[in-house]
Design goal:
Helix content of chain A: under 10%
Number of strands of chain A: 11
Largest sheet of chain A: 7 strands, mixed
Strand content of chain B: over 45%
Number of helices of chain A: 0
Structural class of chain B: mainly beta
Number of strands of chain B: 11
Structural class of chain A: mainly beta
Number of helices of chain B: 0
Helix content of chain B: under 10%
Low-confidence stretches of chain A: none
Distance between the termini of chain A: 32 Å
Largest sheet of chain B: 6 strands, mixed
Largest interface: A-B, 23 and 23 residues
Mean pLDDT of chain B: 92
Mean pLDDT of chain A: 94
Order of helices and strands of chain A: EEEEEEEEEEE
Oligomer: heterodimer
Order of helices and strands of chain B: EEEEEEEEEEE
Strand content of chain A: over 45%
Shape of chain B: globular
Low-confidence stretches of chain B: none
Radius of gyration of chain A: 13 Å
């Protein structure tokens, strides 16, 4: 096990609602990144936080936002949910820009 | 053109076979390279980092060709348990940081 945990495991939301997903990083890691994985696709990089600041972002709209806390845990917030936001959301932690270690993911369904 | 491209497969091989996957990337400024393994409905797990001089870990060998912008993964003496999707990852640091996955290559090892 990587020591990266995510909550909740599964979530069902309605279009237009907002959702917050949580991630606890592996002990000793200071960087957290988030990914969206649709069925049959590779994970898509959403953004990365390093020492509480966003320092990398993929091609996702501003309604995807996040936070990193002093203990390096992190939240992903998605506003105005759309049906296409249904996916597995993965969090990964690393020490600086090293290899990422992933949590088990949160499966989000938007109806 | 996608930033990271992989043949989606599936590659169906008999136990004991040797199989190789390639992954091409478009950004010549890419810095770090990794192979991950992902089982069905599970999170990606780091298989190995890819170093410029090539590296080996048991039955697995990874190579990097910067001139041609591809990385490869060779699996020798395939086991049934090697059946999974193999994802290549490229990290880039420009103005901001990105960690980009390919779509993955499915491998099925047959008894």
């Amino acid at each position: 096990e990587t020591g990266v945990t995510q909550s909740p495991t599964h979530l069902i939301k309605t279009r237009g609602q907002q959702v917050t997903l949580r991630c606890s990083s592996q002990s000793g890691h200071n960087t957290v990144s988030w990914y969206q994985q649709a069925l049959g696709q590779g994970p898509q990089f959403i953004f990365q936080y390093y020492r509480e600041e966003e320092n990398g972002r993929g091609n996702f709209p501003p309604r995807f936002s996040g936070l990193q806390f002093p203990n390096y845990s992190s939240e992903l917030n998605v506003n105005a949910l759309e049906l296409d936001d249904s996916a597995l959301y993965l969090c990964a932690s690393s020490l600086d820009q090293g290899a990422r270690y992933f949590g088990p993911g949160t499966r989000l369904t938007v109806t | 053109r996608k930033e990271v491209e992989q043949d989606p497969g599936p590659f169906n091989v008999p136990e004991g076979a040797t199989v190789a996957f390639n992954c091409t990337y478009s950004n010549s400024a890419s810095q770090s390279f990794f192979w991950y393994r992902q089982d069905c409905r599970k999170e990606p797990k780091l298989l190995m980092s890819v170093y410029s001089s090539g590296n080996e870990d048991g039955r697995f060998t990874a190579q990097l060709n910067r001139a041609s912008q591809y990385i490869s993964l060779l699996i020798r003496d395939s086991k049934l348990s090697d059946s999974a999707t193999y994802l290549c990852v490229v990290s880039q640091r420009g103005g901001t940081y990105k960690y980009i996955f390919g779509t993955g290559t499915r491998l099925k090892v047959l008894a």
